[in-house]
Design goal:
The chain is mainly α. The chain has two domains: about 80 residues; about 30 residues, no CATH class. α1 runs antiparallel to α2. The longest helix has about 35 residues. The relative contact order is 0.21.
Length: about 130
């Protein structure tokens, strides 16, 4: 098999996959909430001060902090979207099938990355 760990059997325990995905979804949602609060705090803290990112010595730090939090927030939102897609694939019966080649995704890969959409071969070819 492409992943070396064998495909998930047709009667695979999708309940386990759902549990892993639900836990990952909860973690991503919590991260999004925390990062949104962080970002709002940065914006609020700088709204009352007239900071000029270019000329204020603190401006560059604030701009970096804001950009860093936004980047982490986008990554967490992407993770949540991947998890939601995996849950939809469980519902429609396509979970465990590579989106690129149509071959089964190995059970080991799905255990490590429950939201994986491609087999190892296709993931390393990208």
């Amino acid at each position: 098999m492409a992943d070396g760990a064998g495909p998930i059997p047709p009667d695979a325990d999708l309940d386990c996959a759902r549990e892993l995905l639900d836990a990952e979804r909860a973690a991503a949602t919590a991260a999004i909430s925390a990062l949104t609060r962080d970002f709002d705090g940065i914006v609020e803290a700088t709204s009352s001060a007239a900071t000029d990112d270019e000329h204020d010595p603190e401006g560059a730090t604030i701009a970096f902090e804001r950009a860093q939090v936004m980047s982490l927030l986008e990554r967490a939102r992407g993770r949540l979207a991947d998890v939601d897609l995996a849950l939809a694939r469980i519902a429609d019966g396509s979970y465990g099938t590579c989106e690129r080649c149509g071959e089964p995704i190995g059970a080991g890969r799905l255990a490590a990355r429950p939201a994986a959409r491609t087999c190892i071969r296709c993931a390393t070819a990208a």
